[in-house]
Structure formats: structure tokens, C-alpha cells
Specification:
The structure holds two protein chains of two kinds.
Chain A lengths: L7 E6 L3 H10 L8 E6 L7 H9 L4 E7 L9 H18 L7 E6 L4 H18 L6
Parallel strand pairs in A: 1-2, 1-3, 3-4
Helix pairs in contact in A: 1-4
Chain B lengths: L1 E5 L2 H7 L5 E7 L2 H4 L5 H17 L5 E7 L5 H5 L2 H4 L4 E4 L4 H9 L4 E4 L1 E11 L2 E6 L15 H4 L16 E2 L2 E5 L1 H11 L34
Parallel strand pairs in B: 2-3, 2-4, 4-5
Antiparallel strand pairs in B: 1-6, 6-7, 8-9
The chains are: A alpha/beta, B alpha/beta.
Chain lengths: 135, 222
């Protein structure tokens, strides 16, 4: 399992997580190269289907990085996203897959270090779980 | 609208486990409004079945198609060129949809993807309540615009039972006693005396008790 390099898709809010990513870049903090970032105008736009599609395409993990619950400029985008993540967790459980394969994280725009830490944490979680699909 | 809820995914997967080509058919009617069987939900279920297939190493083809309605033959007909490519069909419409599909496409295996619950409406986003029992002889105007048949646990037509307490039904604190609501409403409208008017027992021949129902409107029949 040591050579397993999980494929992870991160949906990132353009207003906070993506800004945090830029700060991380400016700090020369490297993001794991197996994380594919999809920038969204607001995490509230992410539908349940968007969260399922990566798994369908073979991703091992998915996460949503959005604003703090009280700082979404569209009022409650991250709250909606968190509910959809919960829905996908239930779907994964019904498919006998680990619900930890999907998660949601709250970020602030300036927290570049935190952005990288979350990515590393997700990579470690998925590494422990192993591939989502049989080889 | 007719309110339904999704069947558990495991139950759906068990139903279609022997099929390799599956079509999920959504409906743009009631089940779209109650977020259980429209185009969005059809896509989610199709994706879920595809993920399950990949996980189990099965070669399963799953697609989705959403009809305007599944309770009208002309819309069901739209499926005739699509359905030929599939062995099994999961209908996300209310119980009417899969039956219409079964009748129109008798050689196909049709499965229900939702459990039909009741006729009702959304009291808030994501919360639906029963409002109509389809008795076939509406009399809500006699009860302050509220239906004691659908909303009283015992369908009482002559006042509350002893289980009414502080405006709630004895079956649950979350269920209003509709007779408490009716009396309050009639008092507000100064019509309480109307509840004392003698009325003969309700005829249930128009309800489900009279067997399966059929309605013919001659002016519409071709």
C-alpha cells in the first residue's frame, strides 16, 4: 500500500480556499500533486452529482474546501455544500464504501498553511483507506 | 402533489443486480417538485449504480432519461426508441409511472425507484405533510378549510377524540390535532355553530373503499 498514490478531487471556493491556495503558493508551500483542484464560484453551487462524478471516474477521495460557516458571501453556500457532502457520505456507506472518502473543510482566505495541511490530511486519510475501486 | 421518498440504494441494487443495461427514468411532475425523482435525482441514482458496478467489477451500463410526466401515455411513448437498448428500467415516478411503463412496454422489466407516500405539500423547504386522502367527495369547507380525513389520525368527522392534548395528537407531539385547528379556525371565523349542524354519515363509496376508481370525462374522450 506504500506506493499507493490516491487520486483526490478538491472543490475549492474561489473566495476563500483558492485564495488560501495562492497564499500557500506564495509561501512556497507545495500541494500534493495528486490533488486535482476544481475552482467553484461558491461551494453552494456544488451539486450531489458533482461530488459523485469523481468517484465514478475512479477518484479515491473528494473534498470541499469552502468558507467559514459565517463568512460565505452568498450567505450559506458552505452550509449547503456540507449537507450535500453528508448525503454523499450516506450514499458511499450504502455502497459499502468508507464515508471518510469525502469531507468538507472550512477555510479562511489567508490561511495558506492550513490549505496545505488539509490537503496532506486528506491524502493520509485516503492512503490508509486504500483505493476506492479494485485495480 | 404526490409526495414520494427514495428507496434505499441497497434495495434498488438488489432489484437490478441481474441486469447489465439499466435505464433510470425520471419524471418532471410531482417527484421533481419533492426532489426525489426528477432529472437531477435520476442522474444521481444512475451515477450511484455506475459507481457500485465499478466497485464490484461489473460491466454495467446505466443511463438516465427524464420524461415530462409518467402518468400520460403520450409521454411514455417518447421512450420507445430509447428503451429498446435496456434490459431493466427503474422508474423514479410515483407508483403510477412504473405501472404505465409496464403496460406500454410489457417485455421490459420495470422497477420502482421510489416509495410513494401521500398527497400533500411542502410546509417548509425539505418538509412535506399529508393534506389529502383522495376520498372523492371533498368537504373541507365544512371544517374551516382543513381536512379531518387526511389530517386526523382516526379520520374523525365529528370532533376530537380524547387523545387531543394541548393542540397535539396523542400519536406524536409533532402531529397537530386537526380538530383543535378546526375548532380554533371556526371560532376565529365566528362559525363554531356550523359544526353542530346535523349531517348524515359520509358516503365512502367515492373513496378507495368502493374499489379501484376510474373517471371518465365525455367531453374529453376522443
Amino acid at each position: 500500500m506504500d506506493d499507493f498514490k490516491p487520486q483526490i478531487v478538491a472543490f475549492c471556493c474561489v473566495n476563500c480556499a483558492s485564495s488560501a491556495a495562492k497564499v500557500a503558493h506564495g509561501m512556497k508551500k507545495a500541494l500534493p500533486d495528486n490533488i486535482k483542484i476544481i475552482q467553484v464560484p461558491c461551494t453552494g453551487r456544488i451539486e450531489t452529482l458533482h461530488l459523485l462524478k469523481p468517484f465514478e471516474e475512479g477518484a479515491d477521495g473528494v473534498y470541499v474546501a469552502g468558507c467559514q460557516a459565517d463568512s460565505c458571501q452568498y450567505i450559506n453556500g458552505i452550509t449547503k455544500a456540507a449537507k450535500r457532502v453528508e448525503q454523499v457520505k450516506k450514499i458511499l456507506e450504502e455502497l459499502s464504501m468508507e464515508p471518510e472518502r469525502i469531507d468538507v473543510f472550512h477555510m479562511s482566505a489567508g490561511k495558506g498553511q492550513e490549505f496545505v495541511e488539509v490537503a496532506d490530511r486528506m491524502v493520509n486519510t485516503i492512503k490508509e483507506l486504500g483505493p476506492s475501486m479494485p485495480a | 402533489m404526490i409526495v414520494a421518498e427514495s428507496k434505499p440504494i441497497k434495495e434498488i441494487l438488489e432489484m437490478v443486480k441481474d441486469f447489465k443495461k439499466i435505464l433510470v427514468v425520471g419524471c418532471k411532475g410531482c417527484v421533481t417538485v419533492c426532489n426525489v425523482g426528477g432529472a437531477k435525482e435520476a442522474a444521481i441514482l444512475a451515477s450511484t449504480i455506475r459507481i457500485s458496478g465499478k466497485k464490484e467489477g461489473l460491466d454495467v451500463e446505466v443511463n438516465e432519461h427524464t420524461l415530462e410526466r409518467q402518468c400520460d401515455p403520450e409521454y411514455i411513448n417518447e421512450l420507445k426508441d430509447v428503451i429498446v437498448d435496456y434490459d431493466a428500467v427503474i422508474s423514479l415516478a410515483c407508483g403510477v409511472g412504473p405501472q404505465f411503463l409496464s403496460e406500454r412496454y410489457p417485455d421490459k422489466r420495470i422497477f420502482p425507484g421510489v416509495n410513494t407516500k401521500f398527497m400533500g405539500g411542502a410546509v417548509e423547504h425539505g418538509v412535506w405533510e399529508e393534506r389529502c386522502a383522495g376520498c372523492g367527495a371533498c368537504a373541507i369547507h365544512l371544517f374551516g378549510g382543513l381536512c379531518p380525513i387526511a389530517r386526523c389520525s382516526k379520520s374523525l368527522l365529528n370532533g376530537p377524540c380524547g387523545g387531543s392534548s394541548n393542540g397535539k395528537c396523542e400519536i406524536s407531539d409533532e402531529v397537530d390535532c386537526v380538530w383543535d385547528l378546526i375548532v380554533t379556525k371556526m371560532m376565529e371565523q365566528d362559525r363554531l355553530d356550523e359544526l353542530t349542524v346535523f349531517r348524515p354519515p359520509k358516503s365512502w363509496t367515492t373513496a378507495r373503499d368502493g374499489g379501484p376508481r376510474k373517471m371518465i370525462r365525455e367531453e374529453l374522450v376522443k
